[in-house]
Amino acid sequence: MSRKVTIGITDCEKYPNYEKWMLAEPNVEVVRLGYHLPNFEDIKKCDGILLTGGEDVHPQFYNRPELVPYCDDDMDQQRDEFELLVTEYSQKNNLPLLGICRGLQIANVFFGGTLIPDLPTFGKFSHSKFREGKDKYHQALIDKSSLLGEITTLDQGEINSAHHQSADRIGNGLVTSAVSPDGVVEAIERKKPGSGAFLLLVQWHPERMLDQQSPLVKNIKQRFLEHCAKLS
Q1: Is residue 198 over pLDDT 90?
Q2: Cβ 198 vs Cβ 227: under 8 Å
Q3: Which residue pairs, CB below 8 angstroms and at least 24 apart, start in 72-80?
Q4: Could you give the CA distance from residue 196 to residue 178 in angstroms, rounded to a whole number?
């Protein structure tokens, strides 16, 4: 990638991890986007959007307020509203979009999907971190015919895991492209990849995977930035 690109990264507690991950590539600049800054207008400088991890999405945004008791207490509805606007802007202006963990969840909600508020409560094994705070690792099964399959050339691979929520019903125009062995959604993309700008949503954290050369890290970042470069 020779052209300089500007990536808008949504603010979160671990923002520096995402910033470092993007800036490890040449010719990349980043803009920190957050409701409290406030700097929504800075999105106009961006060639692509990275939706980051963090708090649970409030169930009111997918019309299931009765699920609030299953969510963590640190929900941030202002962040939800801000990132829904960021996602809307990205879609109206054909900006490439990469969503990570919560980023997958808020984007799925934007497209009309719903979430499982707590995996163990709803019949799935825990996908949260180990008690000592380290990410779990497990296999992901990848649809070889999907965009993700084409990008990674894999039909399965090892990913990290640090979440208690997941996508439930997939949003309009989207499709699941990877699942865990117990059926938890691990990646989402467009049903028709050519019907809009690049969009890939992953439940794992590529920015902190131990193997940064994994196709589930390196190839995804490179493809995202290649699409961003086309707009710069």
Answers
A1: yes
A2: yes
A3: 72/164, 78/35, 78/36, 79/10, 79/34, 79/35, 79/54, 79/55, 80/106
A4: 20
Give how far Cα 206 sits from Cα of 22, 59, 94, 118, 173, Å: 11, 26, 23, 22, 24
Return the CATH architecture of domain 5-229: 3-Layer(aba) Sandwich (3.40)
Give burial (CB, 10 Å; 0-12/13-18/19+) of 186: buried
Alpha-carbon distance 215 to 206, whole Å?
A: 10
173-187 pLDDT, tens digit per residue, is: 999 999 999 999 999
Residue of 142, 108, 136 lying closest to 216 (CA atoms) = 142
* Alpha-carbon gap, residue 125 to 122, rounded angstroms: 9
Query: What's the rounded Cα separation, in Å, for the pair 170 and 9?
Result: 24
pTM: 0.97
Q: What is the pLDDT of residue 130?
A: 87
Could you tell me if 6 and 47 are in contact, meaning their C-beta atoms sit under 8 angstroms apart? Answer: yes
CB 194 within 8 A of CB 208: no
| The 3-state secondary structure of 178-200, one letter per residue | EECCCCCEEEEEECCHHHCCCEE
Enumerate the domain spans of the chain. 5-229
- ∠ CA 4-11-151, rounded to 5°: 50
Tens-place pLDDT, residues 27-69: 999 999 999 999 999 999 999 999 999 999 999 999 999 999 9
Catalytic residues: 101, 205, 207
**Sheet strands (E) in 16-114:** 28-33, 48-51, 97-100
- Pairing relation of β-strands 136-142 and 156-161? antiparallel
